[in-house]
Amino acid sequence: LIARASGPLGTNAQYLFSLDQELRKLGMYDACLDDLVGKVRHLLGESSQPGLA
Question: Where are the domains of the chain?
Answer without folding.
Answer: 6-44
